[in-house]
Target: DUF5060 domain-containing protein
Amino acid sequence: MTKTIAQWDMFEVELTGPSEGNPFVDVTLAAEFRQGGRVVRVPGFYDGAGVYKVRFMPDNPGAWSFVTRSNIAGLDGQTGTVEVTAPRAGNHGPVQVANRFHFAHADGTPFLSFGTTCYAWTHQPLSEQQKTLGTLKKARFNKIRMGIFPKDYPYNVNEPLHDIYQRGADGELDFDRPNPEAFRHFESQVAALGELGIQADIIMLHPYDRWGYSGMSEEQDYRYFAYATARLAAYHNVWWALANEYDFMLDTKPMRQWDRYFHIIEENDPYGHLRSIHNGDPKANYDHRKAWVSHVCIQHWDVKRTLEWRAAYGKPVVNDEPEYEGNITEAWGNISAEELVNRFWTTTLRGGYAGHGETFRHPDDLIWWAKGGELRGEAWKRIGFMRDLLEEDARNGFEPIETGMRFAGRVSAARDGDTTIIYLGEHQPEIWPYGLPKDDGGYQVDVIDTWAMTVTPAERVPAPENHPVRHGAVVLKTEPDAAFAVKLPVKPYLAIRVRKK
Amino acid sequence: MTKTIAQWDMFEVELTGPSEGNPFVDVTLAAEFRQGGRVVRVPGFYDGAGVYKVRFMPDNPGAWSFVTRSNIAGLDGQTGTVEVTAPRAGNHGPVQVANRFHFAHADGTPFLSFGTTCYAWTHQPLSEQQKTLGTLKKARFNKIRMGIFPKDYPYNVNEPLHDIYQRGADGELDFDRPNPEAFRHFESQVAALGELGIQADIIMLHPYDRWGYSGMSEEQDYRYFAYATARLAAYHNVWWALANEYDFMLDTKPMRQWDRYFHIIEENDPYGHLRSIHNGDPKANYDHRKAWVSHVCIQHWDVKRTLEWRAAYGKPVVNDEPEYEGNITEAWGNISAEELVNRFWTTTLRGGYAGHGETFRHPDDLIWWAKGGELRGEAWKRIGFMRDLLEEDARNGFEPIETGMRFAGRVSAARDGDTTIIYLGEHQPEIWPYGLPKDDGGYQVDVIDTWAMTVTPAERVPAPENHPVRHGAVVLKTEPDAAFAVKLPVKPYLAIRVRKK
Model:
């Protein structure tokens, strides 16, 4: 019987095999999916209780056949077919790098990353997890950073819903035996996010651990990466984040290990989902130029430097921690909503992508950044407004532009197609002429109040006279030529949008 | 007859000589001032109408003698004596570099630079200049950037009070003949600033010119530097700023010329007043490591980088343009008062010094940054509060400290002697433990609201538990050890001051 699924959905082959010994280590399993002469090698995995699975995400419609490969006779040489239809509405396929510094879904739909962070939300009580999904449904985030392992950290000390590895007879975690139940639960939430159109930016390792996961051996780590990749790669909305703050583990996991983790993902993810790695110390960025890194993940508060990171790495820049809205003790988690929204606009209008987090103290430690649940701040709505607004004009990605030497780097400006947006941030001029059209016809010009979430047709006023600057034989100009200027209320966090009609 | 003056005041030798030909070019004049075996060579200058002067600022009390040297017989070999008494109250002597990254007066009094900018204030109508001095008397700035030449720039187009060079019979400026009247006026205002305890940071050249001063020949420039130095060096409160935005003149004044300007100042200023040079493009900093540069002058908005500039140049860092409070069109002149004050605190608590400017549009273009007059903003009061507050504890200069890896660079903190100040800037935690004492005895701890200008004894609360971070064999700590934390109102721009009692 041929099963029918939609393109970029998941097709699962289920097989029965041995449960004795340690199948996680002893049994190899893969399948070769074919369409014409093309072969896609897909790793399988042991799901416990004698059940083996191979998961496949077809990237092309039509008929596919498969044959399994295993070191166990009963699992080897199994065959079948699958008929792939057009994608379901809303499934645009995995997100990939597009136009060097940007992202797009596989079907070409631009993906402007507006991420948030809930490190351990899948480890909270199920009612809390439902709340998180409900919140995500109303918020406009399209990416979420979340760990496979639970987290032990201030404000974040409750026991997880599941052990990620099985416990032996001695009650100790056995890091040679993953706990399929934990993975199945995690995957169900990845799938739920997929239904909401949200990318699961899956954090593989982190140092904030009291259970021992961060202390697994090199070999155990490698097996963990292969296992998790085999289980998760067929979800269309997966991104691989090798770590949260990898550099705080360099003493026990040296750099060659991090490189190898990337390789193992590449070996086991036939779809080439996005891969990156996140730093703690701002001076300890991984070398994102390495070929196996798809995009830059960074933690840095000084978002005006986004252009430097683009230049240094030549890849999309995602600043997942430009600090978080909140009031906790830690300095990475206590900036105002205004400042976080400001950092989003500054980052994006310099050609990068920013990430949200929320860290308000709570009597029961119910903090979004770790546990999900409810959003209590003010930034998320403005970030949603920003996403909706930018998506109206997104084509190839907003590329940063210079609007005149005299203020290079002071304000942020970017263009996508015929739309230019100039974000003034902390600057609050009465009128603004820079980067505006040199002619007065055929433009729609709006003033955007990024905090109040309003878009207002701009009041045009004469551009200031172009005052010559003389020195020696050379005449500089103090103003770029502009056909008009825009009158502004004197307040921070404004943007000017110019569209060609 | 022996004249008596106080140390660091100015002693002037006046001589009569030829007025025919071009004495500015033809006549050489200097004096050797002696005290015991020590000789200080002091250049003289022509003051017009056959009058020649040599100005001397003694740096040591007691008897000094002098003899003049000239290529004109009547000006050569003139001798005299001067008796130098202890300094007048309030004259602490010229400001010099102290403790590598800081400044102090010659008598050892720490000088924490709190500068402002009024580029062309000495070129405004005299009534406006009086207003400027009145404003400076009530404000707490102790340095002012001001140009010898007038300025032609948007909002800044009126004719100057004096031509800086004389006009010939054809009405054209003769760049071989300085106008002594203009210099005498300029000097009178330098002296007036000296009486107010304010350093005159004298800008020698700039590109914003419609009269031709910026187009003088190389030789004329060199003579100008020698002449101005001979006239001005004996004022105790002089700093030399070779340019405003020197890099915008590099096409006609190449780098070797800028180096030579420094040398000419060194040759003609026997007191070694501070010397620096100011950039326009943030990427075009002069190489402040050069031996003849006393301190770093910089224009940059990204003040959290102050540590980088200290490291790059190893000298005091003065960021004279961290952008200005105002609402003009230009992006360097339209940040809020809150943001400018924030940049002052951030800069200073990272071991640098910031500069103020005010650029509010005005119907008559009366803008402090160019013309002086009245302050209309809100930053200057807070900067005065900041100066008074820091001077209470200043000994060797506030040196930046790290208060824990987890937020290195996020907040600003510095220590001078037994006083530590932690400036939180945009961070607004409910409680703060980092960088606080490890024991609970003998400290006075205050919370400073840098905007409201209040100092309040801190409410101490238990420090958060030191949550261990486990990974592998290593135990990291999330919090530095602190004996207590400080409870804070959740708002930006707070600082915590810890004094050893």
